[in-house]
Amino acid sequence: MDRRIKIRHLQALTEIIRQGSLKRAAERLYLTQPAISRTLAELEEIVGAELLNRGRGGVTLTAQGEFFHRYAQASLSALEQGLAGIDEAGRAGALQLRLGALPSVAARLMPEVATEIAAEAPQLRLVIVDGPHGYLTGQLRGGALDMVIGRLGAPDTMRGLRFTQLYLEQVAVVVRPGHPILADPDLRRIGDWPVIYPSPGSAIRPFVERLLIAEGIAPPQQRIETVSGAFGRALVPDSDAVWFISAGVVAREVAAGRLVRLPVATGLTEGPVGMMTRADSTDGPAQQLFMQAVGRVLDRLELS
């Protein structure tokens, strides 16, 4: 949009049409008639077209004016709604969003998003609940949560929910630095050590099973089934356990060298991560502010 167009230009045009007269519009906007005429002339110069037909009977829109007036009205209406929403939020106190975050998102994305919101939308209070996919989607479906952010689940877990994809993520296989498997990083060797394996019902379990089937590997007998990031971070650095977990859960540990990702192909585990809301819900100011913050963080992390 041409940055020379100001709100006063849109207000002048819409009020002139509403009143049918420059004089009455000037009175409504507390302007002189020469001032509103100059404002209208500025707008016509900016858009490069005459917007009004002026005559003794008053003013009417030209064809170009009719087209532009429709969008000017919509812009002012949207601005008024936004100001009303801010005013309402101020009267009611801070906006609040009850958010469910699956482990990969809670560890990788949410610290960045929380920092972004604190800087850009301090009126938004986040209530963050983490947990497995089935639990969080159940809370969302029942109304205890407003949104859930995480991996797209199996069709039966997504009943009554709407999913908006944000980015794609793989499952990582990670171990401590110096682990014996690093000398020969072959997935067929994982059975030689304890394995932290995704629990039944977790969003990543089918992806890990698909990977092992494709490699001709049976599920490890010596396994602990969990998607708890806290448990894995406590056990793996001080043991020989091999951990299957969403890459986002351990992104910081891998970047810092506290954990090592096995150099094995895990493309078959790639799946969409996104926002889940109830299918019958509409996004309010809190959801919109949150999604704007998420978008800025994704751009910064180059995940989108």
Your description of this structure?
Residues 5-62 form the HTH lysR-type domain. It comes from Paracoccus spongiarum. Keywords: DNA-binding, Transcription, Transcription regulation. It holds the Pfam family HTH_1. 43% of the residues lie in helices and 20% in strands. It is an alpha/beta fold and 304 residues long. It folds into three domains: 7-92, Winged helix-like DNA-binding domain superfamily/Winged helix DNA-binding domain (Arc Repressor Mutant, subunit A); 95-167 and 273-301, 3-Layer(aba) Sandwich (D-Maltodextrin-Binding Protein, domain 2); 171-269, 3-Layer(aba) Sandwich (D-Maltodextrin-Binding Protein, domain 2). Strands 4-3-5-12-6 form a five-stranded mixed sheet, sandwiched between helices. A five-stranded mixed sheet has the order 9-8-10-7-11. It has a two-stranded antiparallel ribbon with strand order 1-2. β8 (195-197), α8 and β9 (223-225) form a beta-alpha-beta unit. It is elongated, with a radius of gyration of 28 Å.
